[in-house]
Predict the 3D structure of the following.
Amino acid sequence: MTPPGLFDLSTNPDGSVSNIRIGYFLFRITIGVNIFFHGFMRLLTGLSAWEGPTAAAFTDTYLPMPLVHLFLYTLPYFEVVLGAAMTLGLFTRWAMIGGAVMMLALVYGNTARQEWGTVGNNMLYALYFWIMLALQPIDWLALDNRRDKAARPD
């Protein structure tokens, strides 16, 4: 439930959808497609072709290689699920939380490699997930909105 007055810009005075809601919708879709295709393309082109060279970058770290391999083999599946959920606006809150946790794991791993440029990029994604989670109550054109209406008797 959105606190009164917090997002007064959710609709325009004429009842049309506000720019902030349209902007959030487009941002959610863009990030969702981005995350989805991170995983989908890795699965489509062969997971081993990506996993092997990526895992090799962790050989000189303190991270146990079996866990590195496990993480790298499962990451694309999480990306596909999270990206699809974000794109559709389905279980959006949980998808954003999952995305933020995924970024935390990526930051941790890339910090172990001392890949500071990659860590900086991961931090931008973490910021995107924070923004989307914080503004999620103004989401528009999301399956969650239909689901929430179905759960509330009018």
User: Anything to note?
Assistant: The mean pLDDT is 89. Residues 18-139 form one domain. The chain has one domain: 18-139. Residues 63 and 112 are 7 Å apart (CA to CA).
